């Protein structure tokens, strides 16, 4: 089960609303490498992991990603508060606005609704941990691109925090992969699915 | 920054130190130095949380401050984390 903490993992307080920035940042909620997909990917993959330590890593990182989804949603929410109709149209926010007003709905920067294929739960520990390491790097690249596009420090500070967490998670997943492969035949890690074939 | 914001920031910092150490300990459970670090911040985090909750309301339903004698439900009194707060600037 989970318990809600009435605080963000890292503070978000954006003085200047900007719907153009909101359209970019929302991809880290509902896009292919966003936090919603990350949380559910790790929490879904836990069940067939062979090692207790790796179950712990997936549980704890999956839980942290839920807090990151909340941070990204908060950034989008604060960037879209008290918008005028003119600002909405000028920023190109009208396509989102017509379906969701200023509510939070997970889409990519291109407007594609969240797709559960991002969960990428294959039921093979080695496959899944490689997926997770790639996923952390893809999210890090996305945050780097967001930082190239956005100059407001109020938005950049929490984005820089989120980017740094991807780096830490990549490290922990790398260690997890080592923990799993240490228990297998070192001559051939990849010939079978350790969660199913033995 | 308001007194509430300062106290909350303290809880956020200490909880983050703890959480990041916990992730490391997941893959290094026998690292005595990391365990010592965790225990050190665990005490500080518990103290900061208790001080915050005593003054500004609970951060979870599982507060340890009320001792089973809460007079009025205060969970919905304090601001929600996603709300812009002009007082919380650095």
Annotate the secondary structure layout.
The complex is a heterodimer of chains A (198) and B (90).
Chain A: H1 19-25, H2 27-30, H3 35-45, H4 52-79, H5 85-90, H6 94-100, H7 125-149, H8 153-182
Chain B: H1 3-27, H2 32-56
Helix pairs in contact in B: 1-2
Explain what the structure shows:
The complex is a heterodimer of chains A (198) and B (90). Chain A is mainly α and 198 residues long. Chain A is built from eight helices and no strands. Chain A has helices spanning 19-25, 27-30, 35-45, 52-79, 85-90, 94-100, 125-149, 153-182. In chain A, helix 3 (35-45) packs antiparallel against helix 7 (125-149) and helix 4 packs antiparallel against helix 8 (153-182). Chain B has 90 residues and is mainly alpha-helical. Chain B has two helices and no strands. Chain B has helices spanning 3-27, 32-56. The radius of gyration of chain B is 15 Å and the shape is globular. The interface between A and B is medium-sized, with 31 and 30 residues.
Oligomer: heterodimer
Question: What's the β-strand tally of chain B?
Answer: 0
Shape of chain B: globular
**Mean pLDDT over all positions of chain A:** 96
Count of DSSP strands of chain A = 0
Q: Helices and strands of chain B, in N-to-C order?
A: HH
Features:
heterodimer, A: 198 residues, mainly alpha, 60% helix, 0% strand, elongated, B: 90 residues, 2 helices
Quick structural overview:
Chain A is 60% helix and 0% strand.
């Amino acid at each position: 089960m989970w318990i809600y903490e009435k605080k963000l993992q890292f503070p978000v307080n954006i003085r200047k609303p900007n719907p153009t920035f909101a359209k970019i940042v929302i991809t880290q909620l509902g896009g292919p490498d966003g936090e919603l997909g990350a949380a559910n990917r790790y929490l879904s993959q836990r069940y067939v992991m062979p090692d207790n330590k790796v179950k712990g890593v997936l549980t704890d990182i999956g839980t942290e990603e839920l807090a990151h989804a909340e941070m990204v949603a908060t950034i989008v929410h604060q960037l879209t508060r008290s918008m005028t109709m003119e600002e909405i149209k000028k920023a190109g926010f009208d396509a989102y606005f017509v379906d969701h007003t200023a509510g939070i709905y997970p889409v990519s920067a291109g407007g594609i609704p969240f797709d559960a294929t991002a969960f990428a739960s294959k039921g093979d520990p080695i496959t899944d941990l490689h997926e997770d390491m790639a996923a952390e790097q893809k999210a890090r690249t996305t945050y780097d691109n967001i930082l190239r596009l956005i100059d407001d420090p109020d938005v950049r500070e929490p984005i820089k925090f989120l980017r740094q967490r991807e780096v830490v998670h990549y490290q922990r997943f790398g260690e997890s992969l080592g923990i799993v492969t240490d228990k297998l035949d070192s001559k051939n890690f990849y010939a079978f699915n350790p969660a199913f074939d033995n | 920054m308001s007194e509430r914001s300062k106290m909350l920031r303290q809880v956020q910092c200490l909880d983050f130190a703890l959480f990041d150490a916990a992730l490391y300990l997941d893959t290094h459970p026998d690292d005595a130095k990391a365990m010592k670090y965790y225990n050190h911040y665990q005490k500080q985090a518990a103290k900061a949380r208790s001080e915050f909750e005593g003054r500004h309301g609970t951060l979870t339903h599982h507060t340890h401050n009320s001792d089973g004698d809460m007079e009025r439900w205060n969970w919905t009194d304090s601001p929600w984390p996603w709300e812009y707060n002009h007082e919380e600037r650095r």
